[in-house]
């Protein structure tokens, strides 16, 4: 059996651990604990109880507090908080989701949308004395949050808001924590005062009493069994004229005076809405991180299995062949390992930027919006990767892969909804593309879901805005490269990055052109709809370029030459494989000759061949401790 | 909301119902029964008990007996038996698998490998008085059945076989029915007599007494929870010198005389082995059929949901837009519907051929082998389609798709192992390619798993054997076509089929060439391994050509002109989409210009656009009764 190169693996792991590597190391020591794993034999009642118990253990680690400003004024450390909690995805995704709901979503709403008058809740929720949930999605509206139907109508007579579900489709749905444990909900509802609608705001609404019974006017039901995540108690909430104090409006960005006068420092209602949502970016960042972690666990299991499982004799030697010695198996797993590396670096960069914005260290006014765009794109890339990679790992382990004791099916079932929650991947890809197509124009932010199409279709702008970043990077890579090498040599990083950037630019330009050309004939919706696959492809191309940049930056930080060389080969595989998957586009749009496309295909084969002896080193570099894999077949 | 055209849907349904449409109609009436659905809230103990109870209900329908020769000599009706049981996949896949194990695999082994002395078991197992299992796979060997390790050593002193598991890896594993219910196992083991190994044979081995306890020498354990199929009791069996009577050898193709003399009408041991396995083809046929059925259920649910769910306002009208009116949603679902049509026709053709071979109506000596090849290829196509389509349906239904009450996650979890069992899809695709690469040479059949590579690499043959069938079909289509139309017009069926056939031929020829060129340098295994992705692609191209032929044949049988026209549009979508997915290959190998490839992409968009108003008609044509969908969100 092959062995790993321990020192190289250690260097790679340190690189992938990123800016908060001490936090990760500390977490690894804490979470390698039997009590933190799920027990698939439990029914949902018992599974939910177990997760709640595990959360108390997690609360004792001191990680949670890092996510909140201290009472004494010390700032929060969001990068550390997100990183530490992400590590729980190595244990059990129900635990990770439920923790994310309590501390990330519910806690995040109080922290970021509340003001001093709500500070008292932070201690309560951090320590789990107050269990909460995040009641945004409704049965009728998930992606289209601006059109939620729940109302919160101010009554100046009693200085209360009346929270109400006016229609069956306004029922809050899929709400994690609602079915059993939450006592309070952060409810997103249309604020109405003085007879005027003011758009979606967030309110703290008590939903259960100390004994766990629904409070008057509140009707909670259980979503029951799901595809996975049995330890998360998803539920539905209906409000029938539920009265809450005026102070329960989370009033960071808008407030209602006792007499019902509405005020906000943000004039434009749409901008106010997006500012509100923008503060919740941590949720998307976290989902991407957890998806990435789950994919790393699955790949670690499948590659290790392929290093021990043999099938069919090699007629030349008479010995049975290891699965990982088959080309088809290398091609199944190693490019996915390469993409896990790429995405890990991209995730680190995302968390770093989030931390800078949220701690006020990055004060560029465009930074928040760029962060949201990056978080949306990477959430898509990570969850799509996890869904595909875990599926491939299951199949690559055959019948053994189907047994729960080998974990892959649980990883698959638990992560399956990640492509949906915190923003459906199709909708998020469109969001990314929208910013590209409208050149990040300020006014677009304030338009409704498809209003941007009208803008994009009627306003002539240079949609490929100046990308000083990518240009500088390409120049830097060129300067560093060997000048005697052919300018078009695809093994050069600058050429690779240029190709990714060119593809993105071309797609964005032509999509914008198409929108404009068609909008006159058909109206914006038809124009948008006819170009939708094109628009989505532009969004995806943008995400892939962004990930490659992060990979290149990440490699530059690796000091050890051997580890850096290996990471460079992994990066080549990521690039070649991504090109191979899109080679039809590159050829059809004359960015690549047929001969070069064939060379790319051969290149993938050569690269998996070259990386195959290092497979275990790469897996150890992914940073999931072997003892935490807990797949019976690896014992 | 759109409506369906009832009369067209009825015509399409009749066409897809195929040669045994009366059997399907009869089954539809029987199985729309609450008692036949799974209950996801049950633990595995209760789920297993429920399935066993359901099987007694199924046994009362009289379908099972059709799979066996009658005592009075009337022949079996395998086409009807396979078709009727397939319909249970609309209800619950645990029920379908467990039924398949009992009647298809265990019963099939007794029926096809046994002789008159085993006839008494048939009645017992058909009526469920005898519960059995099919113990082929071992922990160490699944795909490589020829190298199973379990031994059955003949002892002339007592006229018994001694069944034994000599190593930990020889343990029978994943055996459906073994963990709780089976009293007897059809055990595949290396027959040893007179000190000589005779290869893998099948033996009937009692494993449990009436009280359900392991018999002496038999140690059974439970595989426990799996990704899905909770109602199937998969288990592991270890044999410690278990003695069974000589008569328990299923002796259709080989026998051992009381004194230990071995005899067989098939001289060549390898050919004997393949003849044995070949009789079990019904298993692969059935898995493909059930996968197809599950995909039809999922697509029926997702398309109906997309016809009622709205999200985001159309800025032109102010109304919220149906999901199915989005181009991206049409592109997600409608090509999958088209492929379900294609595969349904191909499955009908497969079952028809199986029926002819197994009832002795097709006596062409090549028919059995062609049937096995077709069954392997279609099993791959159907299970790959089901895995992808059900996943897409889940995601296309968002959060609602993740709730068990909407069935998609259960369909996903239950079918996930279909790509693995009855032959791993990668191994089966290789099997298909192997026959193509060696031009179905008789001698190849007798070579071990990779021995064929040496053959293919060293023997010069015209690997693209005469395909009179496809040539005739292309000519017939041409004759029927409008002669004024451009010969290269891709909307013509003959041009489409030619393109699929050309791709297959080219891939097969070049793969063979590559094997030959490389084998001299590297030896057969390396040559095979370096070409493995190419070989697999050739197998896939063959399968796609075969499916298209069946689709064309199936359409020709539709009498109603409107239904036929619609089916033709669906066929176009299947063709265009398949080409689009492979367009890089077509361009790179000069089978298609860049301009034509772009036209294909536009063609897919135009076709989904044209089919969109007929979506419900197409779904009803798929033949899953609306009342059987049982997805809460459609209520």
Using brief descriptors, characterize the structure shown.
22 helices; Butyryl-CoA Dehydrogenase, subunit A, domain 2; Butyryl-CoA Dehydrogenase, subunit A, domain 3; 635 residues; homodimer; six-stranded mixed sheet; alpha+beta; three-stranded antiparallel sheet; 53% helix
Descriptive report:
The structure is a homodimer of 635-residue chains. With 635 residues, chain A is of the alpha+beta class. Among the domains of chain A are: 132-270, Butyryl-CoA Dehydrogenase, subunit A, domain 2 (Beta Barrel), CATH 2.40.110.10; 425-466 and 493-614, Butyryl-CoA Dehydrogenase, subunit A, domain 3 (Up-down Bundle), CATH 1.20.140. Chain A is built from 22 helices and 13 strands. In chain A, strand 10 and strand 11 form a beta hairpin. The longest helix of chain A is centred in the middle third of the chain and has 32 residues, at 327-358. Chain A is globular, with a radius of gyration of 25 Å. The mean pLDDT of chain A is 94. At the A-B interface, strand 12, helix 9, helix 10, helix 11 and helix 12 of A face strand 12, helix 9, helix 10, helix 11 and helix 12 of B.
């Amino acid at each position: 059996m092959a062995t790993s190169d321990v020192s190289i693996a250690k260097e790679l792991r340190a690189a992938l651990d990123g800016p908060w590597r001490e936090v990760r190391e500390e977490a690894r020591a804490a979470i390698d604990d039997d009590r933190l794993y799920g027990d698939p034999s439990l029914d949902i009642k018992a599974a939910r109880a177990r997760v709640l118990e595990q959360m108390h253990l997690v609360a004792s680690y001191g990680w949670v507090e890092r996510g909140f400003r201290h009472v004494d004024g010390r700032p929060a450390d969001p990068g550390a908080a997100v990183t530490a909690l992400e590590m729980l995805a190595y244990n059990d995704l129900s635990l990770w989701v439920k923790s994310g709901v309590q501390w990330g979503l519910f806690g995040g709403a109080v922290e970021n949308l509340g003001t001093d008058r709500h500070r008292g809740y932070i201690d309560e929720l951090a320590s789990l004395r107050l269990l909460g949930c995040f009641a945004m999605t409704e049965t009728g509206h998930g992606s289209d949050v601006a059109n939620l139907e729940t109302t919160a109508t101010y009554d100046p007579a009693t200085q209360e808001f009346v929270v109400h579900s006016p229609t069956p489709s306004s029922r809050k749905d899929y709400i994690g924590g609602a079915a059993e444990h939450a006592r309070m909900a952060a409810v997103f509802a249309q604020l109405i005062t003085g007879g005027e609608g003011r758009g979606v705001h967030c309110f703290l609404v008590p939903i259960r009493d100390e004994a766990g019974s629904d409070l008057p006017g509140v009707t909670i039901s259980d979503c029951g069994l799901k595809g996975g995540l049995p330890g998360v108690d998803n539920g539905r909430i209906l409000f029938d004229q539920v009265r809450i104090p005026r102070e329960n409006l989370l009033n960071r960005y808008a407030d209602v005076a006792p007499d019902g006068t509405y005020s906000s420092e943000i004039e434009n209602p749409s901008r106010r809405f997006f500012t509100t949502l923008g503060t919740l970016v941590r949720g998307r960042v976290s989902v991407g991180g957890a998806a990435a972690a789950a994919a790393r666990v699955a790949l670690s299991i499948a590659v290790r299995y392929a290093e021990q499982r043999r099938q069919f004799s090699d007629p030349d030697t008479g010995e049975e062949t290891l699965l990982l010695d088959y080309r088809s198996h290398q091609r199944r797993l190693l490019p996915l390992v390469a993409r896990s590396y790429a995405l890990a670096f991209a995730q680190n960069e995302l968390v770093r930027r989030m931390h800078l914005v949220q701690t006020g260290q990055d004060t560029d006014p465009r930074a928040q919006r760029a962060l949201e765009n990056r978080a949306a794109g990477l959430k898509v890339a990570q969850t799509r990767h996890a869904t595909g990679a875990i599926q491939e790992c299951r199949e690559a382990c055959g019948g053994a892969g189907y047994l729960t004791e080998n974990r892959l099916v649980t990883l698959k079932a638990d992560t399956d909804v990640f492509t949906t929650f915190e923003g459906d991947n199709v909708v998020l890809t469109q969001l990314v593309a929208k910013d590209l197509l409208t050149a990040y124009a300020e006014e677009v932010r304030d338009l409704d879901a498809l209003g941007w199409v009208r803008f994009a279709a009627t306003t002539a702008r240079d949609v490929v805005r100046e990308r000083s970043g990518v240009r500088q990077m390409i120049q830097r890579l060129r300067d560093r490269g060997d000048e005697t090498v052919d300018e078009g040599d695809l093994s050069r990083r600058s050429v690779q990055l240029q190709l990714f950037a060119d593809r993105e630019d071309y797609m964005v330009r032509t999509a914008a052109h198409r929108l404009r050309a068609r909008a006159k004939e058909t109206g914006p919706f038809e124009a948008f709809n006819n170009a939708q696959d094109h628009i989505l492809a532009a969004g995806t191309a943008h995400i892939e370029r962004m990930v490659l940049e992060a990979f290149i930056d990440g490699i530059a930080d690796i000091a050890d030459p051997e580890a850096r060389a290996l990471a460079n080969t992994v990066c080549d595989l990521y690039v070649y494989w991504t090109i191979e998957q899109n080679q039809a586009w590159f050829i059809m749009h004359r960015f690549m000759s047929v001969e070069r496309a064939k060379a790319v295909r051969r290149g993938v084969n050569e690269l998996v061949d070259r990386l195959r002896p290092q497979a275990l080193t790469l897996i150890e570099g992914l940073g999931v401790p072997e003892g935490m894999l807990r797949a019976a077949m690896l014992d």
